[in-house]
Amino acid sequence: MGAHMSEPSHCCKARVFTPETRTDASGELEREILRLKKERNAVILAHNYQIGEIQRIADFTGDSLGLSYKAAEAKDADVIVFCGVHFMAETAKILNPSKTVLLPDMDAGCSLSDSCPAAELAAYKEKNPGLYTVAYINCSAQVKALSDVIVTSGNAAKIVAKIPQDREILFVPDQNLGQWVMEQTGRQMRLWPGNCHVHVRFNAELIDALRQQFPAAPVVAHPECVQGVRALADEVCSTERMITFCRENPADTFIIITEPDMIHRLQHEVPGKTFVCGTQQRQRGDCDCFYCEYMKRNTLEKLRDCLKNNTPKIELDSALMEKARAPIERMLDWSR
Ligand code: 13P
Ligand code: SF4
């Protein structure tokens, strides 16, 4: 577990984010990024788990589904800077192959994506022919190329419900999201035994403790959490849906069970409400926040440098991109 914990510099320090704790910094570095962005005719896309400074400077911040649409639509830009993790930048490249796609730090990986190596999936499919393979977008381009349709946490149940009933489904790589989709759709699926090391750290004991502390606050959890946590939540949804839920729900305080930087987006989109970061109770004065250290690899400095140097770039074989594009486009069509 220790190896996955993020550095204290990214620590939220306080677990409760009130409207007063919202910050709106804009300094020299930000101005340089905006100047370089204009020079390169670039668009900056950021996932909801990026640090607040990156979210604030991005042209669009969203979940995996929203970012896929934005990447596909970025027709006028020459460069897409993807502030997220590797599989997301790959998806942007696959959807818009003529663009330069930059990822500020090439080591921004994903433990969930790593839990399903393409060679293992290919071997499994060979041994078990005829399966309809549904892949959560958190996987490599090679895994996408082996799949029939891609899903995100925002559309997984809707997409799975469209698959012909006579097909047996293999869901990769997240067993928790897969289990949640089965609960939502009543559809049985074979589940690949992968998970996200960040979301599986939340547990029922932690939710109970937070509920005691904030009894009126609805608990909002991401479907990558384990079943015992999802069962205790008032709403289980993608990061994007969390925004609508918190906006529409009359409560003024919410317990957010996902990567803590999601709270920047919530504070921005749902002003005036309070968000409690669903991390472990603090012990010995340490803040044990459940950050995704891969998402945190991107910094404003690396964003500036990648725009300045036009690197690191996502490079993918065109035959691989073509194979991986079909299931992604099927998802975009089916989820409209
Ligand atoms: P989404 O809500 O974008 O699916 O986020 C989940 C996630 O873990 C992305 O890495
Ligand atoms: Fe991957 Fe989990 Fe990080 Fe999302 S939060 S990028 S699923 S490791």
How many beta strands in the DSSP annotation? 13
Main sheet characteristics: 5 strands, mixed
| Pattern of helices and strands | EHEHEHEHEHHEHEHEHEHEHEHEHEHH
Q: What's the tally of helices?
A: 15
How far the N terminus sits from the C terminus, by CA atoms, comes to 39 Å
Sequence stretches where pLDDT stays below 50 over 5 or more residues? 1-10
Mean pLDDT across every amino acid position = 91
Shape call: globular
Rg over CA atoms, rounded to whole Å, is: 19 Å
What is bound: which ligands? 1,3-dihydroxyacetonephosphate, iron/sulfur cluster
Strand order of the largest sheet: 1-13-12-10-11
What class would the helix/strand composition place it in?
alpha/beta
- Beta-strand percentage? 5-15%
Indicate the percent of residues in helices.
25-40%
Walkthrough of the structure:
The structure is a single chain. With 336 residues, the protein is of the alpha/beta class. The chain has helices spanning 28-40, 52-57, 64-73, 86-95, 111-114, 118-127, 141-145, 156-160, 175-185, 204-213, 227-230, 239-248, 262-269, 300-309, 318-334, and strands at residues 16-17, 42-47, 60-62, 79-83, 100-102, 132-136, 149-151, 169-172, 189-191, 219-221, 235-236, 253-257, 274-277. Strands 1-13-12-10-11 form a five-stranded mixed β-sheet, with helices on both faces. α7 (141-145) links the parallel β6 and β7. The structure holds 1,3-dihydroxyacetonephosphate and iron/sulfur cluster (SF4). Iron/sulfur cluster binds at residues 85, 110-112, 138, 196-198, 259, 292, 294-295.
